[in-house]
Amino acid sequence: MLKSGLDMAPEFIRLLLLEKFRSLSFGRDIVSGLLVFVFISFILFYLVGLAVFLGLILRSFFEVQDVPAFLNKAAVFYLLAEFLIRFIIQKKPLFSLNNYLHLPIKKSGIINYLLVKSLFSPFSLLVIILFVPVTISDINPVYGPLYSSLWLATLFFFSIALHFLVLWLKEVNKERLLGTVFLFAIPTVPFVLLYFDVINIGEIIAPFFGLSSLGPLPLFVSMAFCVACYKLIHRQYLVNAYLDRVAKQDFAFMSGAGKDLFSRFGAAGTYADMELKLILRHKKSRGYLILSLFFLLYGLFMYRMASGGESLMEASGITLFVGIFMISIFFINYGQFFLSWNSNSFDFFMVKQHGLEALIRGKLLILIVISFFLYLLSLPYVYFGWQIVIFHTVALLYNVGIGIHVIARLSMWEPKPMDINKGAMFNYEGIGVSQFLMGIPFFVLPYVIYVPVNFLFDPYAALAAVGLFGITGIVFYKKMISYNVRQLQVNRHKISSRFRQGT
User: Does 311 reside within a domain?
Assistant: First the structure.
């Protein structure tokens, strides 16, 4: 007879504890867990401080006269921001489903257990941490204890609903690149519209949260939305709760997108096609690509502060940094693990004739193509001034001519293995000393040329000098690749040993 999830609750808890403490990587997880704990504690300290003084900060620094009314307007933006953060970081609990499906337990109970277990995360307490102090200090005196509690509970249940909604969207979307970008764009648009003073959706939705001062209707709506989201994800998991479906890999992702795209470039093109498929099919690499697209919005905040043509040139040093950052963000994130992505198959490339050379050339080809793609996506920033085209073109020339070779060379310094199927957030596999030092020469090197030329002449001459520096790297592209290949050949056995030993 099949047992229900409620009957199996104590056994589920026991299995969860055994899964943690009997893991072969338990010792390693303790060390990484301590690092994450310190990092989270540091963030939590600032969040608690912000929460305690939120009302005072709003009144003193932002001159908000009616804090409850302001929070009613800001609530929807908080929920949109939480949706984005959850979408990036939150993991799906379905990975351990195949550990329970063979047991005599109702599938519905197993899924209920996995969904409830997934609620035990810092996100579930984020609303409580951030809004309890300001509820006590500013909302309670206006609404009273009952209605201020209703306001807080409404926000809390919306937050829990977002948890299940994100799980459902990830399952339906199957982490397709175009769908993921679209889901990022939807909650981002209200922030962009607010930033440019087009429309404030907070003012439209504020009356709904204000109803908490009149009764429990908003709370009932948030609870109903939470239940609906739970039912959606529960049904989605229940339909797919079969061992063959859980174990099956979705190799149809972006089918044909990278098929023979670079075949004209010979062996390097073959490895470039393989690398593109790796980027699109695996969690961590695809996460870096999506994050790079998201970071293209960085220019909105930086360029608007210097939107005049003259201002852009007056702050040319900062503008150049923004251009380099946006165009190179992918191969800084992805390229820092240049060889670690292939840690499981590195020996295969070693035994192939010219395998390591083709591997490097293929990777650099991918990085160049994606950098050029990000360059094209950044060109609409010309809205803030025509000089943007100059800055971004100089940034592209530097990245393609010099930057990728710097990243490739530094990434060969004691690379570490990693599992490419794991997510990108709070995953420290493959990270070593070189990853922390890599950004220093990459971002400092262009200013070694820019600063003295700008001091002697003007910003245009300095930008031209950096651009010529990049063009020089493009001219000597083959020689620079040959240098990196020789270095890899010299250290290939040492690198292979590190990958095999997992250190």
Answer: yes
Residue ranges of E strands in 32-143: none
Q: What is the DSSP string of 247-288?
A: H---TTTTTTSSTTTTGGGHHHHHHHHHHHHHHHHSHHHHHH
> pLDDT band at 374, cuts 50/70/90?
confident
Tokens (6 digits) for 428: 């420290």
User: Residue 449: which residues within 8 A CB-CB, separation 6 or more?
Assistant: 462, 465, 466, 469
What is the extent of the structural domain holding 314? 263-501
Same-domain pairing of 456 and 490: yes
pLDDT at res. 219 = 94
pLDDT digits (tens, 9 = 90+) for 440-483: 777 888 999 999 999 898 888 999 999 999 999 999 988 888 88
Task: Report the alpha-carbon distance of residue 399 to residue 382 in Å, rounded.
Answer: 20
Tell me the two tokens of residue 399.
């990245």
Same domain, residue pair 430 and 388: yes
Residue 349 lies in a domain: yes
Question: Could you report the per-residue pLDDT of 399-444, keeping only the tens digit for each?
Answer: 989 988 888 888 777 777 776 666 555 454 545 555 556 667 778 8
| Six-digit token string for 205 | 């939705």
The amino acid at residue 42 is F
pLDDT of residue 257: 39
Residue 424 included in any domain: yes
Closest CA to 275 of 333, 341, 180, 331: 341
